[in-house]
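In response to reviewer comment 3 from the previous cycle, which asked for concrete evidence that the modeling workflow produces usable outputs, we include below a single protein chain processed end to end. The sequence was submitted unchanged, and the resulting structure tokens are shown without manual editing.
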Amino acid sequence: MDSLDLTERDMTVVYRDRTFVLRAYRGAQQWLGIIIENRTPIRYGLAPAVDAATCLAAAVGFVAAPVDAAGEPRGITR
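The workflow returned the following structure tokens.
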């Protein structure tokens, strides 16, 4: 074996009061992503990426947008 090619990358993201699991996986020479919150996959329309880092970065951006739009969780003031 010349090189190690792991075909999955996982990341846990805690953003404000919500927790997401992001997975980038390789299929057909491109990286695709899955976003999961509370054991439920979230549908999104992000394009495939050339590497895992780009795929995960796009998923983090996708997760941050609706959480930011929802505002602060109840009971928290700054």
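The CA atoms of residues 20 and 29 lie 25 Å apart. We consider this sufficient to address the reviewer's concern, and the full set will be provided in the supplementary archive.
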